[in-house]
Specification:
about 140 residues; alpha+beta; five-stranded antiparallel beta sheet
Length: about 140
């Protein structure tokens, strides 16, 4: 059931086992990792970018979730993702059995935020120019 839920999410979802095997990666995750032509079963832990892999490893070893953070992939400088990594553990286990990496695409949101700041700056410059022009008359 969990696989079906993860498959339908618009977020990139990758489930990594304690022995560093990728158990599940939905279609969005394969796109996120730049592995669109590969099946989820063909993905390896080494396919994760180093920055993300080290955080997944930390979660699997400590059993504590990582604070959500922004991630900008090296291959696409304009893309921005919000990444969350949480452990999954059974009630009786002291260490997590798996870790779930979720990446939400914030690219458009960040672009809109930058455009709003630019628009605000241009309005300020226009107001300043109008005041200067009014004073010089």
């Amino acid at each position: 059931m969990m696989t079906g839920v993860l498959r339908e999410l618009g977020s990139a979802c990758v489930v990594v086992s304690r022995d560093l095997k990728i158990l599940h990666a939905n279609k969005t995750a394969r796109k996120f990792l730049g592995k669109t032509g590969r099946d989820a079963a063909d993905l390896e832990f080494t396919d994760l970018p180093q920055q993300l892999a080290s955080k997944v490893y930390h979660v699997l070893r400590t059993g504590t979730a990582v604070t959500p953070f922004k991630y900008e992939p090296d291959r696409d400088k304009h893309a921005v993702y919000s990444v969350t990594i949480v452990p999954f553990q059974t009630q009786t286990a002291t260490q997590p059995a798996t870790a779930l990496l979720i990446a939400d695409d914030l690219t458009q949101t960040e672009q809109l935020r930058r455009l709003e700041v630019e628009t605000s700056n241009l309005r300020l410059i226009r107001t300043m120019a109008d005041r200067l022009a009014h004073r010089s008359r």
